[in-house]
User: Which sequence fits this backbone?
């Protein structure tokens, strides 16, 4: 009887772990979809109308539907600045580097290097997530994976990442970013918090 109960408990734990990992993949997918929809909405319905009509033909500035935009490599729109609040702008920036415009590389070599690096990060965290049992860690990795995939899609389609959120104060502008960048930073920040505080407390307790 004890053996049966032990096996039953082990099966329940395995099922719960499987469900938790499933939800982590769902979270990663939600981040990815939110990222792509936000980029589509901003570029098509905010950036395009703000571009000088003389710069491009009117047909090129016509907004595209989401799936039409997603399956086609849309033109690289020029830098555009739209003031929303005294401290916040919507901008059109093409980032060839990593998150927040760091190591912005130009040329095809830089595009391939960033694609390879981003893909390696996605594979690493996916393998880690499949082996992980901590809900907290799964959430962190889901945020990072979803965000990284969102930016990889941009690189594959445009050769650069769409950045459009611009916060500034006292003349200083924080590097433009997007939803994927935010998810990656939050995920990494939570991982660091876990490593420095929760793991340290666990080691001290043992």
Assistant:
């Amino acid at each position: 009887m004890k053996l049966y109960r032990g096996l039953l408990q082990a099966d329940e734990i395995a099922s719960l772990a499987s469900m938790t990992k499933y939800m982590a993949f769902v979270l990663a997918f939600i981040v990815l979809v939110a990222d792509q929809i936000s980029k589509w909405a901003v570029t098509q319905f905010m950036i395009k109308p703000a571009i000088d009509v003389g710069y491009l033909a009117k047909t090129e500035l016509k907004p595209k539907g989401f799936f039409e935009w997603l399956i086609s490599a849309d033109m690289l729109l020029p830098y555009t600045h739209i003031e929303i609040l005294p401290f916040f702008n919507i901008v059109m920036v093409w980032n060839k580097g990593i998150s927040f415009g760091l190591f912005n590389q130009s040329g095809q070599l830089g595009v391939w290097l960033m694609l390879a690096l981003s893909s390696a990060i996605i594979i690493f965290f996916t393998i880690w997530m499949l082996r992980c049992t901590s809900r907290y860690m799964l959430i962190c990795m889901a945020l990072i994976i979803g965000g990284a995939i969102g930016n990889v899609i941009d690189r594959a389609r445009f050769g650069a990442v769409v950045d459009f959120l611009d916060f500034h104060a006292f003349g200083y502008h924080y590097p433009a970013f997007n939803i994927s960048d935010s998810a990656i930073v939050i995920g990494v920040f939570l991982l660091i918090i876990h490593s420095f505080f929760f793991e340290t407390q666990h080691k001290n307790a043992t």
